[in-house]
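Below is a filled-in request sheet from our internal design queue. Each sheet records the structural input a requester submitted and the sequence that came back. We keep these sheets so that new team members can see what a complete request looks like end to end.

REQUESTER: design group, bay 2
PRIORITY: normal
MODE: inverse folding
CHAIN LENGTH: 581
BACKBONE (tokenized):
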């Protein structure tokens, strides 16, 4: 996302906080006013000390009081400004993260499938935090810095325009420096953010799959890959730090120029106007020198803010790009799928992930309510893809899939998925209690219903052996085997009792004895329900009402187990490959 588009996107998030922003600006005005008045009164106080050694005590006391009031006021409103800035920054951070997470849930699965999970997580967590830090610095330093520069110039012009003109002529040097640094830092920080996200994604993936890494002895190679990514991040970080670190010495050089110019010009006017009606006094020179410091100091701060702000913009560009991604088409105006009987029909369905490589083509299917349909075939033939199309994780490219005569693209996704219970080979349990995991699909179920489902899935026994039974927090208080995790996933579906089931290698992680018990439970669960069973072990689907044999995206054979064996076709070969001795 381009910088201008990123700025417009950030402004949309700042707009709801306009009242607080106005208060912050007013606080900044008070802060700057207090900081600018103190040097003015200090100069007046110096002029209360006369050349003959006498002191005008009454005006001196008054000026000292004014200095104290202005300094204390600036201090108090500096705190108010910090509070308001924090409030805006962290509310924007919260809104960005909330919208980004909500967007991820609405994105089509192809977006997630095509990106490392760690990269998406880095955008939501790290990039959002970076944006907040940049905004916070911007509110507390950028606004006060700009106001200070404008205020100082105005006062100096009112006091002695000739000296102010000298200061003003040197100002373009500071702007040139700031512009140069801004351009370099934005590109460098953008490269740094991308390199950090790449390294985070790699580390997340390798840590999550550490067992596989160790099993295949990939530790050394992973260290090399991580070192390469780390080196890339190091180089991009050094380049970013180089540009940002040039701000201090360059702005200090400009500060020295301004201060020297004020000393020379002010000294000249003090000497040349001595004895005149309106001389330029030592107190006036003192005021100008303090204003020279105040004038140059914001350039240092603004330059530092520019570097941080460029980093924040780079991160904002990534998170706003995520939020701007195209969502799945809305189905809010579509009717819900109700009173499902479980009739499924596919007519001339075609689908491919890559449009240049065909996967499923000319697929026709008819499943009556209550049928148990097994889908078998070699790896990559389209079995899981067909299930994904039925669940509308992806939409067909051509043709249509119907449930009870309704095109599934013409009903809401939520109502379709509510009527399909799904148990996958990959188990997923959230970091929560056993109870919360089981009742995910039916949070309003009774205790008896939950326990009954757990018993039917043969999970109740090992659950009661956990430290706190159903209230055990998974991942911290209870460590489960892969088979036990699978049983919990099965119990979760049994509790919902949907009219249709999808079992994608649902018993692959269970031992033979437990598998037989779970198959009995599944048989009772599938009774009267349309069920799709994706299986590699053909022993688990011999009682299916219909077996679909897929190859290269097509159903090449269909029938019952005995019928397919008699045909001595592809299914016969698969069966012999598993059971031939």
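RETURNED SEQUENCE:
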């Amino acid at each position: 996302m381009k910088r201008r588009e990123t700025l417009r996107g950030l402004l949309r998030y700042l707009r709801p906080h306009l009242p607080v922003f106005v208060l912050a600006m007013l606080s900044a005005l008070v802060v700057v006013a207090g900081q600018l008045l103190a040097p003015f009164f200090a100069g007046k106080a110096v002029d209360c000390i006369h050349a003959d050694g006498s002191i005008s005590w009454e005006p001196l006391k008054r000026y000292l009081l004014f200095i104290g009031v202005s300094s204390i006021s600036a201090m108090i409103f500096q705190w108010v400004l910090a509070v308001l800035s924090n409030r805006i920054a962290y509310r924007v951070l919260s809104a960005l993260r909330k919208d980004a997470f909500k967007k991820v849930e609405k994105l089509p699965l192809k977006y997630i499938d095509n990106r490392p999970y760690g990269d998406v997580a880095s955008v939501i967590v790290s990039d959002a935090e970076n944006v907040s830090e940049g905004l916070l610095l911007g509110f507390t330093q950028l606004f006060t810095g700009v106001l200070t520069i404008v205020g100082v110039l105005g006062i100096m012009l009112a006091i002695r325009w000739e000296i102010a003109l000298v200061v003003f002529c040197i100002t373009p040097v500071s702007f040139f420096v700031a512009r140069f640094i801004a351009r370099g830092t934005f590109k460098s920080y953008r490269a740094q953010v991308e390199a950090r996200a790449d390294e985070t994604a790699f580390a997340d993936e390798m840590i999550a799959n550490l067992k596989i890494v160790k099993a295949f002895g990939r530790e050394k190679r992973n260290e090399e890959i991580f070192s390469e990514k780390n080196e890339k991040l190091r180089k991009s970080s050094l380049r970013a730090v180089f540009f940002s670190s040039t701000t201090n010495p360059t702005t200090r050089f400009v500060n020295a120029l301004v201060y020297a110019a004020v000393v020379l010009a002010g000294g000249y006017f003090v000497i040349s106007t001595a004895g005149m009606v309106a001389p330029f006094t030592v107190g006036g020179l003192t005021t100008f020198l303090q204003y020279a410091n105040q004038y140059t100091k914001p350039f240092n701060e603004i330059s530092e803010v520019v570097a941080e702000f460029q980093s924040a913009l780079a991160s904002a560009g990534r998170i706003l790009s995520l939020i701007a991604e195209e969502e799945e088409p809305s189905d809010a105006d579509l009717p819900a799928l109700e009173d499902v009987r479980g009739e499924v029909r596919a007519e001339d369905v075609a689908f491919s992930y890559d449009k240049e490589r065909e996967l499923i083509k000319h697929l026709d299917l008819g499943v009556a309510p209550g049928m148990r349909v097994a889908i078998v075939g070699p790896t990559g033939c389209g079995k899981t893809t067909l299930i994904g199309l039925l669940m509308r994780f992806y939409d067909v490219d051509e043709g249509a899939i119907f449930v009870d005569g309704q095109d599934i693209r013409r009903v809401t996704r939520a109502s379709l998925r509510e009527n399909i219970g799904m148990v996958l080979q990959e188990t997923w349990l959230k970091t929560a209690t056993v109870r919360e995991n089981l009742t995910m699909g039916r949070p309003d179920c009774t205790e008896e219903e939950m326990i009954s489902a757990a018993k039917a899935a043969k999970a109740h026994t090992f659950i009661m052996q956990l430290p706190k039974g159903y209230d055990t927090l998974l991942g911290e208080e209870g460590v489960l085997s892969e088979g036990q995790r699978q049983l919990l996933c099965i119990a979760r579906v049994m509790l919902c009792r949907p009219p249709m089931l999808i079992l994608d290698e649902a018993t692959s992680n269970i031992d033979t004895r437990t598998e037989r018990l779970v198959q009995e439970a599944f048989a009772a669960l599938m009774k009267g329900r349309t069920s799709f069973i994706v299986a590699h072990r053909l022993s688990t689907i011999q009682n299916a009402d219909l077996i679909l044999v897929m190859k290269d995206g097509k159903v090449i054979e269909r029938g019952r187990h005995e019928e397919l064996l008699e045909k001595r076709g592809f299914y016969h070969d698969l069966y012999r490959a598993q059971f031939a001795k």
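SHEET NOTES:
- The domain at 3-199+240-323 is CATH 1.20.1560.10 (ABC transporter transmembrane region fold).
- The chain has a mean pLDDT of 81.
FILED BY: M.R.
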